[in-house]
Amino acid sequence: MASAEESREARARLPQLKLDELLEELQARLDAARGTRDRVHSLLEAVLSVGRELELEQALHSIVEAAAVLVDAEYAALGVITPDGKALSAFHTVGVTEEQIARIGPYPEGHGILGELIRHPEPLRLAKISEHAASYGFPPNHPPMNTFLGVPIRVRDQIFGNLYLTEKRAGAQFDDEDESVLSTLAVAAGVAIDNARLYEESRLRERWLRANAEITHILMSGDSRTKVLGMIAERAGEITGSALSAVALPMEDTETLAVEIAVGMDAESHQGLVLPMDRSLMGLAFSGAAPVTSADASTDSRISSEPRRFEGLGPAVAVPIGSGEAGVRGVVLLAREAGRQPFSETETETLQAFAAQAAVAMELAERRRDAEEVAVLQDRDRIARDLHDLAIQRLFATGMTLQSAGRFIDHTGAAERVARAVDDLDETIKIIRSTIFGLRARDGGAGTGLRARVVRAVGEAAPVLGFAPSVRMEGLVDTDVPREIADQVIAVLTEALTNIARHAQAGRADVALETDGREVRLTVTDNGVGIPPEGRRSGLLNMRERAQNFGGDLELSSPEGGGSTLMWSVPVAGQ
Fold first, then answer.
1. Which candidate among 252, 436, 473, 488 keeps its CA 20 to 30 Å from the CA of 570?
2. pTM of the predicted model, to two decimals?
């Protein structure tokens, strides 16, 4: 048996042990409270940091960084979901280097575990990713990942995307508190994303308004149509981040559009093209008076394959310029590089509003020019009337007076001088009458320009050829090419297309008409059998003679891929 002294010592140690346990428990709770306080403080800091960002891309990156810090995860990502809610359209990552990303390959599209969160937008926590039924492994060179925590991000009750966290540090598992903290951050992220979107939309509207004001100003200032169309193409391309922007206008008396302006990637392939209404995005937008979009213009079956002009480009949209009673005045086409995001419904609607405003400005400018032209014509009529009623009558009366007075002049030399003066007055009267006729003359009917005549000639040849040739026209062909040379151009074009139909056995033909104000060049290319050495040359001799009569020439060549190229050129300066 223990002594009484030992019993007293044991009873003294017991309260001390209980006190130590209580102190340890208290310390643990204090540490837990301090940890919770620090985590709440970190969460508040993260919410404030995310809420300060107004640029959407920067806001998304800040959200990913904050998520990784809050739950102590090695890897974090934010996947943006497509408008249809079926896949990922963008992926923002933290923890993976650029070199690792390059080795892994393209960003995920929303399959496997990532797709599971898209299909079921609820928090998902896994101890091991590979054990989930939806998992089907990682691509080569992907870092190993086991633990997983994902939560959806909602913006105004719509799922915007998901936060994905993997590999909690120190080999720990994600717990309920991590899920709660991340869900709270997701709510704040939704608000921040909404604010960034609103800010981005307001800045975008401001840019569109500024572009509209700029276009209206240059239109009302009387600048050329080419400058106005170029401004429309440039501003629309800049604001939407497009690689290519083009504007096409309808050609008189034809069912085609001519690309007046092309700016950006491979613009040369589009500049001057004549497009059919039924085999081009621009034509469909014009004939339907409504926007037409394409997810990939390079493979779209609605676009004629020849000539090739959308290589390296992907998403595209064609929007009519104008609508309603005023009618469609043209079409603006925008295309982004391959792999970029398609044009959203909001972007298309904004672009349509911009095009409508541009159409109104064009209408006002045309009305002003019409009023100015009417004023000029009225002034011409007044001048012609005054010349006829006053100048001609007085000259005629003076001539009659001199003619009568000539009979009373006995001096032979003086009489001859008076007679010559009367003849000069008669010639002057004829000149004035010719001037009056010129002042009152009007332009010819619609569709008489060289552009329209070329399109009609190509269209008439299409049934005989068995296909529709492509047409490209550049320069002021209607104004810089005189009528007599324009007649020769049409004759040579008709002869060239007829020869292709008869002898070339071709499946494609390209027509290009260009002028720089000094020379007009007609180039006709086909992919047929070429010109045989023993073939008849009467048609070619005739075309060469037409060129030489105006100081020009005809050249024939065979491209590397086969077929033939005919280039007919004539100087137009000084004609």
1. 252
2. 0.58
